[in-house]
Amino acid sequence: MKPLAIIAMALFMLALGLVVAPAGAGEQTALAYVQARYKDKPEPGADARYSRRIERLWGECEEREAETGDPCMDSNLWVNAQDWEIKDQTFEQTLDDAERAQIVSTFDNMGRATKITIDLSKDDDGWVIDDIGTGCDTLSGVLRAEGSIC
């Protein structure tokens, strides 16, 4: 078979789904997932998936918001601010096992040193955010309307 014919056949089989990647290939790491979420538009974390626990807390918070008019969230915990211009961002994975991970993101946000801790867990579709910590607040605490510890 000629090289062009081989390439054409491979592309055809790929299009039909007959070529299967090895198990685990293409599975995104927790670190890569968090790094990608910081690139989300229109804001960091916009495309994040959250654990069932956090989704439940979001729902309860939105119900309170509808009743009281008080906003669930008045800043973006991914940057611990309402506005952001992230510079010099680094990531460190401090927990890494098959079902849970923790990533610490450190960066300069408009002249302010910022450290965000992101807890992840895994579901059938990959990594999900199970909490975010700023040192003063956690996503779960904000959603439960708990006061800041700072």
Question: How would you characterize the overall build of this protein?
Answer:
It is a single chain. By secondary structure, the chain is α+β, with helices and mostly antiparallel strands. It has one domain: Roll (Nuclear Transport Factor 2, Chain: A), CATH 3.10.450. The chain contains four helices and four strands, in the order αααββββα. A four-stranded antiparallel beta sheet has the order 1-2-3-4. The longest helix has 17 residues, at 52-68. It is globular, with a radius of gyration of 20 Å. Mean pLDDT is 86; it is low at 2-25.
Which short descriptors sum up this protein?
single chain, alpha+beta, Nuclear Transport Factor 2, Chain: A, four-stranded antiparallel sheet, disordered N terminus
The CATH architecture comes to: Roll
Distance between the termini: 70 Å
Just give the CATH class.
Alpha Beta
User: Describe the biggest sheet?
Assistant: 4 strands, antiparallel
A few lines on this structure:
By secondary structure, the protein is of the alpha+beta class.
